[in-house]
């Protein structure tokens, strides 16, 4: 494609006209345009142009003087753009699309928000949250640059030339003023330079916190409101939390059926009260989004100074992280408030895991703070500083999607990641520095013959062996770091029955009930298997497979569908699993693991099955609700379930 012509613009412009000055919308997508093909003299004749599509070209930059002062919508997806500062020539821009430009970073997203005060949408999503982040960063940077100016000028000797000193100040500010994670350093240094130059120009008498404060009030109004707890409660002591764009229903419509179905009714049903049904992963915060799949959730351990990595004994955590679609949410189970929400455009999160790191402050004090690891489709691990609300580390872990991840229960910085590339990698994410930056290193690579779906360090010896439920069965690896090999193959495969079909069956649920008993699902239809790690390992011979020593089998849904993840609550002896009908199966297995062999011949019925009705408060019909995952906090006070219809359900156990 050569330079643009007036004839081409008229052909592709709308409404149809023989005058360029009448065109309001112009589609120049898919023409293999280069930057030099955009003729400013020609394009500046489009005096009324409001919408321009430059997608699917080969643009590396945009000319700085296009003269399109009325432009409101600009699409530049799938190009080679490397700089966004030129977009400041479009002060009326309200919608911008930049996806598919591989050289743009998160810093460029922040620059766009700063430069375009009227911007409402970026890549089809609400820009208000980014605007808020930019305002906070700008406020802090302005304060730090001003303090640096005062310190710099106080140290200035009278004989130094003012002009040279001012130039030195700009350089020193860019070098020394730091704030936020390294991933945002391009933006923060860019803003530090601008603020410094403004200080110098005004002689240090005036510092503007940027033009963001001049944004129209509607931009502020569209910002997602913060969820706030409501003090009053409805009858029945069910909290009412009117959290905008998050609430599905907390009402009598959400009554849960709890059915004790244990043997001869010998086990009393748990008293579980429904607290919240949330819709916090919706695309564009739409209450009509019932399609986003929610894949994983994990309670934040109740860390306490001086306790082990497993958390404080008997402590209750009411903070749970959930992931699905492009978002990771951190939720307070008691109030139903979404405390933090992290989004990564074009990502789909499949797994989350918590750890607590010990950091040393500049004053020399040791502190522990929680870090949440999240990973998914793009093969990246994001380390989220939950309290600060930003991503403080990024590990390019795999070239294919990450199916699951977990932290070591004994080494707070050791992280296992399992990918569709049929590899499990053990990482040391390291301790963050004062700027919350991580330097991850790879410790081990474990080769698998099929995709690992669930990872589980062996409870009695987590530094020695790792279990994995895979598409092709249940496998075990030696993960001792004192061994020389840094790339290892599977030590042994566990089989759950005898015969030609004993091996290679998918295991999509795996967790320890206590230090010895393992719960696994998927090896046989309609059951969950409880087996002994120690007895199984003792019976290991020289072969590559070993039959598990079954302690009991639990009755579960007869569905042929897969990937319903089970979980356990070791402190309470509970096993949990969802199903394809929206049920939550609950098993109190303490009597089973305490009994003497042989195991019962028939699968044991669940202690209780929880059900809840379709969310009629949405005014929509959900044809099918599947519970992909259900977890409980360490004391089984709160229960959180995720569905394939974009709903997070939270219950609380009422103590008798």
UniProtKB/TrEMBL annotation:
Cross-referenced PROSITE patterns: LRR, WD_REPEATS_1, WD_REPEATS_2, WD_REPEATS_REGION
One GO biological process term: DNA replication
Keyword flag Repeat: yes
Record's GO cellular component terms: centrosome; chromosome, telomeric region; kinetochore; nuclear origin of replication recognition complex
Sequence segments annotated as region (Disordered): 203-244
Positions of WD repeats: 395-429
Keywords carried by this UniProt record: Centromere, Chromatin regulator, Chromosome, Cytoplasm, Cytoskeleton, DNA replication, Kinetochore, Leucine-rich repeat, Nucleus, Repeat, Telomere, WD repeat
A Pfam cross-reference name: WD_LRWD1
Entry's Gene Ontology molecular function annotations: chromatin binding
Localization per Swiss-Prot or TrEMBL: Chromosome, Centromere, Kinetochore; Chromosome, Telomere; Cytoplasm, Cytoskeleton, Microtubule organizing center, Centrosome; Nucleus
Compositionally biased region (Basic and acidic residues): 208-217
Record-annotated Leucine-rich repeat and WD repeat-containing protein 1 LRR domain positions: 7-195
Segments forming domain Leucine-rich repeat and WD repeat-containing protein 1 WD: 263-652
Repeat keyword on record: yes
Family in the record: Belongs to the LRWD1 family.
Subunit structure: Integral component of the ORC complex. Directly interacts with CDT1, GMNN and ORC2. Interacts with ORC2 only when non-ubiquitinated; this interaction prevents LRWD1 ubiquitination and degradation. Some of these interactions are regulated in a cell-cycle dependent manner. Interaction with ORC1 occurs predominantly during G1. Association with phosphorylated ORC1 during mitosis is not efficient. Interaction with CDT1 occurs during G1 phase, as well as during mitosis with phosphorylated CDT1. Interaction with GMNN occurs from G1/S to mitosis.
Function (record text): Required for G1/S transition. Recruits and stabilizes the origin recognition complex (ORC) onto chromatin during G1 to establish pre-replication complex (preRC) and to heterochromatic sites in post-replicated cells. Binds a combination of DNA and histone methylation repressive marks on heterochromatin. Binds histone H3 and H4 trimethylation marks H3K9me3, H3K27me3 and H4K20me3 in a cooperative manner with DNA methylation. Required for silencing of major satellite repeats. May be important ORC2, ORC3 and ORC4 stability.
UniProt protein name: Leucine-rich repeat and WD repeat-containing protein 1
Record organism: Physeter macrocephalus (Sperm whale)
